[in-house]
């Protein structure tokens, strides 16, 4: 009997329910149900009661940590022996770290030689800040409306020229991200590269964003030396802009810096100290203002913490030797975002942003558990046939449970899979729902990958006794294993074919996405080598390579230079894998 405890694999939905009741009762939070929903709802309720008994001991819950040196990166897949037959895939390959380490550093001109920032009128500032709010601050809702009002005043008054301080640095970074948001918006509903006029407009906005970012970098020392939520926000926004520039090492460095400052500030929360004297001058003069600002500051830090948790894990998923900041080791003790932080002008936008953020946090926690339980170095169950079927079944249950409780505003369809599970169609899906579908598909492909790896190893075949005990490729494998291999391959192919130019993908995840897609193409290529597995893959695979190449090359052009060498290398691998897949199908007739 399989004895591994499933307690550490408690659903992320269950664990979050004990830490927050935010956004309950809202029409936006209405769950998109399924025939299985009521059964699973009872399971969740039982789990909620069990966890509530120990709610005061949240540190006892296992943290969803993705450890270094896991074996699920694209580079790990490229080292599979199945690609020995395709030597050109590896011949010109350079490790991602070496590629990025050898890049020409981003230079910042001396202050005395800086050109003045572009003059921006009131309507342009409004447009830039609105784009920031609907994009960067929607995905990672860390900035309050009060901060945005102050930023608008700083930019229009030109006071950013007067002194270096965290507030001024934040204003410049917010403008930079607003322009970056304008560059990457409007690409999701077309597979075509923007026309020349659009490219010129986006190039102009990218140039303005770079100018604000460069000016912010000149005063970033104030964020490093200050211990405040605003300084932490500056570090996080710097990471986001480096992600937009497709510079993963620099993005990771600033994510780590922001995470470290979060750990510091969360370790010394005001609640851990004695209450100030009621006769304190600040309390007498501003009794409510001081308290309100402190509460807002603490909520901001917690939101930055969760944003860093998501992004650090995303980078670690592809660069498995990156040092950990330590935030993942305490994530179960940090409250989830509360519904008292005013991030958007319209209440509906604010609530939808918060729900979306919660969905992304929950998915990232599940992805970390998947990578850790199946692919952790030395302890992962991914190649142990006695262990991984049970782990895969539990993780698949948690994945479907995550999808079951998504609010309608974030729900999505996967018609190719839903017909088998009798799911009720969602209907029109928002761009945010389509982005979450991509997360769902990548998680599903990684969950079921152990079956494919087992099949590729040749150890799962039910062989007829031929007197020699050889593993014949012509033998008929176990039907359940084939079914689960197909689950992995379907998810890989759907992950590729459903990719579009989502603003969040292009601005934040172009580098990560290129590697993930190269890995998916390699998995499909490995499967195409074996007739039994090739029969599980639809003919749509022949369109996958061109689809990805067009998107990734188009995003690089739209985002502007210099292009990322590791994205370029991923595109080369995608093209090579596509060529080999086509060769297999041609030879197969």
From TrEMBL:
GO biological process: DNA-templated transcription
Pfam families hit by this protein: Fungal_trans
Stretches the record annotates as Disordered: 17-40
GO molecular function, one term: DNA binding
Biased composition range(s): Low complexity: 17-26
Keywords: Nucleus
Residues in Xylanolytic transcriptional activator regulatory domain copies: 251-343
Listed name of the protein: Xylanolytic transcriptional activator regulatory domain-containing protein
Source organism per UniProt: Apiosordaria backusii
């Amino acid at each position: 009997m399989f004895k591994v405890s499933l307690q550490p694999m408690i659903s992320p939905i269950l664990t979050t329910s004990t830490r927050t009741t935010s956004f309950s009762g809202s029409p936006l939070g209405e769950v998109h149900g399924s025939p299985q929903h009521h059964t699973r709802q009872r399971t969740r309720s039982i789990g909620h009661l069990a966890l509530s008994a120990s709610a005061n001991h949240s540190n006892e819950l296992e943290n969803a940590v993705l450890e270094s040196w896991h074996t699920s990166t694209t580079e790990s897949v490229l080292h599979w022996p199945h690609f020995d037959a395709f030597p050109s895939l590896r011949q010109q390959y350079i490790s991602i770290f070496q590629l990025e380490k050898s890049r020409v550093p981003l230079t910042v001109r001396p202050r005395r030689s800086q050109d003045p920032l572009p003059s921006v009128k009131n309507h342009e500032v409004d447009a830039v800040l609105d784009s920031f709010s609907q994009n960067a601050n929607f995905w990672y809702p860390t900035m309050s409306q009060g901060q945005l009002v102050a930023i608008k005043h700083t930019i229009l008054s030109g006071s950013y020229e007067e002194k270096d301080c965290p507030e001024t640095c934040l204003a410049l970074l917010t403008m930079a991200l607003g322009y970056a948001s304008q560059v990457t918006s409007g690409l999701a509903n077309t597979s075509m590269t923007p026309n020349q006029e659009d490219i010129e407009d986006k190039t102009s906005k990218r140039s303005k964003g770079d100018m604000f970012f460069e000016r912010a970098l000149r005063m970033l020392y104030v964020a490093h030396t200050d211990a405040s939520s605003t300084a932490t926000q500056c570090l996080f926004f710097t990471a986001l802009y480096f992600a937009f520039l497709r510079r993963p090492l620099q993005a990771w460095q600033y994510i780590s810096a922001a995470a470290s400052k979060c750990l510091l500030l969360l370790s010394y929360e005001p609640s851990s100290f004695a209450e100030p004297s009621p006769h304190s001058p600040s309390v007498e003069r501003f009794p409510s203002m001081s308290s309100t600002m402190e509460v807002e500051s603490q909520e901001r830090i917690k939101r930055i913490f969760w944003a860093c948790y998501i992004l650090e894990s995303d980078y670690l998923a592809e660069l498995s030797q990156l040092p950990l900041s330590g935030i993942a080791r305490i994530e179960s003790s940090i409250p989830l975002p509360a519904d008292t932080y005013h991030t958007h002008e319209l209440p509906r936008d604010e609530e939808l942003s918060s729900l979306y953020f919660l969905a992304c946090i929950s998915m990232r926690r599940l992805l970390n558990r998947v990578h850790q339980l199946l692919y952790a170095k030395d302890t992962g169950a991914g190649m142990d046939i006695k262990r991984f079927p049970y782990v895969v079944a539990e993780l698949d249950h948690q994945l479907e449970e995550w999808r079951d409780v998504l609010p309608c505003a974030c729900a999505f369809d996967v018609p190719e899979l839903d017909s088998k599970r009798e799911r009720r169609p969602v209907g029109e899906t928002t761009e945010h729902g389509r982005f979450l579908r991509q997360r769902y598909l990548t998680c599903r492909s990684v969950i079921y990958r152990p079956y494919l790896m087992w099949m590729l190893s040749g150890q799962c075949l039910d062989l007829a006794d031929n007197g020699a005990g050889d593993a014949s490729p012509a033998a008929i494998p176990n039907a359940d294993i084939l079914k689960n291999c197909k689950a992995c391959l379907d998810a890989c192919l759907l992950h590729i074919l459903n990719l579009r130019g989502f603003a969040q993908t292009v601005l934040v995840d172009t580098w990560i996405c290129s590697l993930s897609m190269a890995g998916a193409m390699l998995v499909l290529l490995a499967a195409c080598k074996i007739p039994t597995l090739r029969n599980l893959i639809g003919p749509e695979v022949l369109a996958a390579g061109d689809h990805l190449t067009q998107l990734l090359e188009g995003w690089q052009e739209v985002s502007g230079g210099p292009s990322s060498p590791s994205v370029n290398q991923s595109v080369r691998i995608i093209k090579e894998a596509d060529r080999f897949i086509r060769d297999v199908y041609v030879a197969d007739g």
